[in-house]
Amino acid sequence: MKGAGARRIKEFIIRYVFLCLAMVSIFILAMIVVFLVKESLPIFKSVSVKDFLFGEYWYPTDEDNPAFGIKPMIIASVIVTIMSSMLAIPLGVLSAVYVSEVAGRRIKEIAKPVIELLASLPSVVIGFFGMVVVAPFLQETFDIPTGLNIFNASVMLAFMAVPTISSISEDAIHSVRRELREASLALGATQWETISRVVLPASLSGIATAVILGMSRAIGETMVVLMVAGGAAAVPESIFDSARPMPASIAAEMAEAPFQSEHYYALFATGLVLFALTFTFNIIADYISHKYRQTGTATL
Amino acid sequence: MIKINAKRLMSLFIVLFFTFSVSPAFAGNLVIKGSTTVLPIAQAAAEQFMMKNPGVNISVSGGGSGNGVKAIIDGTTDIADSSRFLKDKEVKLAMQKGVYPVPHRVALDCVVPVVHPSNAVKDISIEQLMGIYTGKIKNWKEVGGADKVIVVISRDTSSGTYEVWEDKVLKGGRVTPKALLQASNGAVAQAVAKNKYAIGYVGIGYVNEDVKALTVNKIKASAGTALNGSFPVSRGLFMFTQGWPEGDTLSFINFVVSPEGQKIVAKEGYVPLY
Fold first, then answer.
1. Residues A15-34: what's their mean pLDDT?
2. Which of A170, A215, A259, B134 has minimal CB crowding within 10 Å?
3. Cα dihedral: A288, A293, A294, A298 (round 10)
């Protein structure tokens, strides 16, 4: 009896230790959000929300007439994210399908870790590669004024998103139950028909989550866009124009913005907009993965 | 067991307490931070100074002129490196806090317009530079080059180098939003070296064989032209102290402006004071 009581107390303590640890991380996250909001609100005393979000000009250090419009940055972030997704989604999902469904065991054993290894490339290395190798190549090949542009940044970001998308999709595809595949093949479907009509629909929620997590990685990525996107604070007119996505703007200017100046608040507000975007992405990912979860064979 | 642990914990706290409570002005410890332009000078000077004075420990970090000045006003550093003089706002803030930052000019810096080595343009006037950077001049043929679009490369608006450029070249005008932004001198030099149609500006210490420095109003950027003031885009580099320096801070500043310190300045690619 005594032993059982001690065990119960131990169980109780362990339970609350874990609860506390979980609470600490949630608390820290909440404090960061509170801090972000607190440090960004003062800018709206001098600039209206509309002028901030839709203003065309960004001259934060102008002594007499500063301008705080982040429209070019928002557009740059959105375009770069969409373009990199257009490259990364087919690459990531199809390579996941190949590795999981088509490839033989030997190829699979090499391909899977290599794709995942891509994720461990530091973003500054990818950025440097884009700056020193890809940019001059683009400029020579297409005879454009600069190789540091939206296209280059999108390709580099796609590099970074492919491993994320691929490995999460691969897990989703892998977890489709064996009897589904075997039933499909037993009914006389070819391998392609099985993949496209059974396996992919069954793993759709996992793939959608993978895609959105990949996109939110691309939109929040800083180093690559700082080095490769060129940094022009103008609304881009073509994919070969240079642009300045939001993270690049914050990273380039925060270090020297005077503490609690308008410039400082404006950069925090930019961070808040960025956070709102990535947060939305993650909520959508969460929603999709719950709503379209494949629970049995009946919903196919 | 528990008692031993508690004691250990206690001693750990005591050690931590003393580590963090040591003020930057503590004898034998110097903290230097600020401008990345002055950083190479401060770094090399600190190394030599520490070799000569083994009792002194100097920690040098960057962070930008603005952060350096901020730190000297807050008293979290002994010496603030800055590639510009104080701004009005900073003077006011210092006055409010009852702090008197004292400037020590330690070197001169030229900000030099650079282009790709294959560019035919050799000389440019301040007015032309202004036209290019405000977006009025868009093609190299307007300044005597090939019929190609000018790719304008600028620095982030809060850097000291940008401030000098804004002050001496733009004269209150605004940089065209189409200008590319790079976050450091090195990145500008790199971007210009990789782009035939680009123009950028860097501190004279960052001019290398991969880029071509333009003469401004026919004057070549050099130690001589910066010192006699004839090169139009040059500036002083400062180390600020809180009040008149004393002790190790004073000896360090004296070392930097001594002939030996000025040799370091020249070696790092800046213009020595004499």
1. 94
2. A259
3. -90
Give first-to-last CA distance, chain B, whole Å. 66
Rounded to 5 degrees, what angle do the CA atoms A140, A141, A143 make? 65
User: Per-residue pLDDT tens for A89-102?
Assistant: 999 999 999 998 88
In this model, does residue B13 exceed pLDDT 60? no
Q: Which of A56, A59, A258 sits opposite B174 (nearest CB)?
A: A59
Pull the structure tokens for residue A253: 């200017």
Chain B environment of A267 (Cβ under 8 Å): none
Average pLDDT value over all residues in chain A: 88
Which pLDDT tens digit goes with each residue over B247-257?
899 999 999 99
The confidence score (pLDDT) of residue B1 equals 40
CA dihedral sign of residues B140, A231, B187, A267? positive
Nearest to B214 by CA among B115, B126, B108, B147: B115
Query: What is the Rg, in whole angstroms, of the alpha carbon atoms belonging to chain A?
Result: 24
Question: Predicted ipTM?
Answer: 0.73
Alpha-carbon gap: A254 to the closest alpha carbon of chain B (Å): 8
Give the nearest chain A residue to B35 (CA atoms).
A256
pLDDT digits (tens, 9 = 90+) for A46-80: 889 999 999 988 888 776 778 899 999 999 999 99
The C-alpha atoms of residue A286 and residue A278 are separated, in whole angstroms, by: 12
Q: Considering only CA atoms, which of A242, A281, A46 is closest in space to residue A146?
A: A242
Q: Give contacts of B183 with chain A, Cβ < 8 Å.
A: 226, 251-252
Nearest to B177 among A57, A148, A252 (CB): A57
Instruction: Look at A255 and B89 and tell me if their CB atoms are within 8 Å.
Output: no
Find residues 208-247 of chain A whose CB sits inside 8 Å of chain B.
Answer: 226-227, 230-234, 241-242, 244
The pTM for the full model equals 0.73
Extended beta strands in chain B, E state: 29-34, 57-63, 79-82, 101-115, 123-124, 151-155, 180-182, 198-203, 212-213, 215-216, 234-242
CB spacing of B180 vs A232 below 8 angstroms:
yes
Longest dimension (CA), chain B: 83
Cα R_g (chain B), whole angstroms: 22
Residue B2: predicted pLDDT: 44
Count of CB pairs separated by less than 8 Å, A with B? 88
Cβ–Cβ gap B157/A60 under 8 Å:
yes
pLDDT recorded at residue B7? 54
Three-class secondary structure of residue B147 per DSSP: coil
Query: How many angstroms separate the CA atoms of A59 and A57, rounded?
Result: 6
Contacts with B158 from chain A: Cβ below 8 Å: 60-61, 253, 255-257, 263
